[in-house]
Specification:
By secondary structure, the protein is mainly beta. The chain has no helices and eight strands. Strand 6 and strand 7 form a beta hairpin.
């Protein structure tokens, strides 16, 4: 048992919410949301080389992946792999990119089910 970080009521370390005040993950010293996030220590031009984010803040807002290589539900990077992406090269469901592989895309060139491109890929 540990004290809740919000109300100091004793709670189980496995509790998902405090039964007294309703705080999420009350046994954790710090809580900044649910999900998974990884940022590489190595940086290039101030951005992490790799940022993976499938995380939501405590208020329910998603955390976008922003890096040279960005992977997540929402992502922006030189290389973007996401559901909603922006980048130079993007593999996404919805994207705006220089080179796009997507279901719905806008960009310089790419392959898409529905897309608006300035230049067509010739195969």
């Amino acid at each position: 048992m540990k004290p809740c970080r919000e109300c100091k009521h004793e709670v189980s370390e496995q509790a998902r919410a405090c039964p007294n005040c309703g705080a999420p993950e009350p046994a954790k010293d710090k809580f900044d949301g649910y999900g998974y996030e990884y940022k590489s220590e190595a940086k290039l031009m101030g951005l992490p080389i790799l940022h993976i984010s499938f995380k939501y803040r405590a208020n329910g807002r998603p955390v976008p992946a922003v890096g040279i290589i960005a992977i997540g539900q929402f992502a922006a990077g030189a290389i973007s792999i996401s559901q909603f992406g922006v980048g130079l090269l993007s593999v996404s469901q919805f994207t705006v990119a220089a080179v796009a592989i997507a279901q719905f895309a806008a960009g310089y060139t790419g392959i898409a089910q529905i897309g608006a491109f300035l230049k067509q890929i010739v195969m």
